[in-house]
């Protein structure tokens, strides 16, 4: 269990890990905190956007849409490996997910199958949306995968978490498929190596 780090510490942690950061507007104060608490935080969640075009993707994730107001994550990882910080605090990215998965993340154990949606993930996870169509064919450039690894490791390093605190949306909420195009087990192996 951990309180979220400050926005300044978050930015510093990403930069210390070698992440190329782009600060978008007043990202430090753009959040959904009026809808509920943010924290304690327990992990990092990775998504794909089902969009193309970096500028458009960042704008959609920052503003959201009529049925789901932004921010839709804390950072958008574009194809060029840049991490666009668009919000900090509660964000509309995780939604309701499986409490058994949450307990496994907290305990840093293997994840059980996600079969129910009864826990507030927006409260407990840092979220990163990754620019990708999510069709299994849109490529994941090496620089983008490297950025996913680095942001995940940066947050785990600050909180003293292992790679088991990094999950995909598909592992949290039944019916979700993101991120599609690589496995989270493979990404966790990369994060584990980076944390050594």
TrEMBL record:
Q: According to the lineage, what is the superkingdom? A: Bacteria
List the SUPFAM superfamilies hit by this protein, alphabetically: N-acetylmuramoyl-L-alanine amidase-like
Q: Name one Pfam family in it.
A: Amidase_2
Which segments constitute the N-acetylmuramoyl-L-alanine amidase domain?
27-180
Question: What InterPro entries would the database entry show?
Answer: Amidase/PGRP_sf (IPR036505), Amidase_domain (IPR002502)
The protein's name: N-acetylmuramoyl-L-alanine amidase
């Amino acid at each position: 269990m951990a309180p979220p780090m400050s926005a300044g510490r978050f930015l510093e942690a990403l930069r210390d890990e070698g992440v190329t950061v782009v600060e978008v507007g007043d990202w430090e104060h753009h959040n959904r905190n009026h809808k509920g608490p943010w924290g304690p935080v327990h992990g990092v969640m990775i998504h794909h956007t089902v969009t193309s075009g970096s500028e458009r993707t960042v704008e959609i994730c920052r503003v959201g849409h009529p049925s789901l107001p932004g921010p839709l994550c804390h950072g958008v990882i574009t194809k060029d490996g840049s991490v666009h910080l668009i919000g900090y605090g509660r964000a509309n990215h995780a939604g309701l997910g499986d409490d058994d998965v949450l307990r496994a993340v907290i305990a840093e154990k293997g994840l059980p199958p996600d079969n129910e949606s009864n826990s507030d993930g927006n409260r407990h996870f840092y979220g990163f949306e990754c620019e990708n169509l999510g069709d299994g064919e849109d490529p994941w450039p090496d620089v983008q995968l490297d950025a996913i690894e680095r942001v995940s490791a940066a947050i785990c390093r600050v909180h003293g978490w292992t790679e088991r605190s990094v999950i995909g949306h598909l592992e949290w909420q039944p019916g979700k498929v993101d991120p599609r195009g690589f496995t989270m087990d493979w990404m966790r192996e990369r994060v584990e190596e980076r944390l050594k």
